[in-house]
Specification:
Layout: E1 4-11, H1 14-22, E2 27-35, H2 44-48, E3 55-63, H3 69-79, E4 87-88, E5 91-92, E6 98-102, H4 105-120, E7 131-134, E8 138-140, H5 148-151, H6 156-172
Parallel strand pairs: 6-7
Antiparallel strand pairs: 1-3, 1-6, 2-3, 2-8, 4-5
Helix pairs in contact: 1-6, 3-4
Length: 179
C-alpha cells in the first residue's frame, strides 16, 4: 500500500540536490523549482537576480512506507551545508538558502526536532540555520532543469558539485539507494 507524501527542500542549486534524492528507495519523483518568494510564476532568469525571494528547491514525491520524512530530512541536512546563510559553495544569494517547506504540522515538528538533535550532537562546527517554513506555492522550473544531472552528467558543474554530493549520500546511506 502506497503512502505517498511530499517533502520540499531548498539546499542550494537544484541541479545538485535533485540527484541526491532521486537515487533513494521510495522516492518516485523529484521536481526542481522555485519556492518561498513573492513573485508569481517566476522564471530561472527572475530568481537568479535574488530579488524575487524564491529559493531553488526540490519537491520530492515519496512513499512514506518505504522512506520516512525523517530519513529524507537527515539526508537533506547531511548532503549540503546547512550552517551558511544564503550560500552553498560558490553559489551565493538568497536563492541558495537552506530551507524546509513543511507540508503539515508533523513535518514542522520533525524538522525542529531533527535540527535540535544535529545541533546538540555538534554534527557541524556551527549551528544549523536552515529556515523552517510552512507550505507555500511551488513553481516547477523550466523543463531543461528537470533531472538536469541525469541528462548532463559530463557538465563540469555537475561533475564538480552534483556528482560528489550524490556519491557522498550513496556511501553514507547505501541501504537507502535504489538497486
Amino acid at each position: 500500500m502506497s503512502n505517498e507524501q511530499i517533502a520540499i527542500f531548498a539546499g542550494g542549486c537544484f541541479w545538485c540536490t535533485e540527484p541526491v534524492f532521486s537515487q533513494l528507495k521510495g522516492v518516485s519523483k523529484v521536481e526542481s523549482g522555485y519556492i518561498g518568494g513573492h513573485t508569481q510564476n517566476p522564471t530561472y532568469k527572475d530568481i537568479c537576480n535574488g530579488d524575487t525571494g524564491h529559493a531553488e528547491g526540490i519537491r520530492i514525491t515519496f512513499d512514506a512506507a518505504v522512506v520516512s520524512f525523517e530519513t529524507l530530512l537527515e539526508v537533506f541536512l547531511v548532503s549540503h551545508d546547512p550552517t551558511t546563510p544564503n550560500r552553498q559553495g560558490n553559489d551565493i544569494g538568497t536563492q541558495y538558502r537552506s530551507a524546509v517547506f513543511c507540508q503539515n504540522a508533523a513535518q514542522f515538528e520533525q524538522t525542529e526536532t531533527t535540527i535540535e538533535v544535529f545541533n546538540s550532537a555538534f554534527v557541524y562546527n556551527a549551528p544549523i540555520i536552515t529556515e523552517i517554513n510552512g507550505a507555500s506555492t511551488f513553481y516547477p522550473a523550466e523543463d531543461y532543469h528537470q533531472y538536469y544531472f541525469d541528462k548532463n552528467p559530463s557538465n563540469p558543474y555537475c561533475m564538480a558539485v552534483a556528482a560528489p554530493k550524490a556519491a557522498k549520500i550513496r556511501a553514507k546511506y547505501a541501504r537507502l539507494i535504489k538497486s
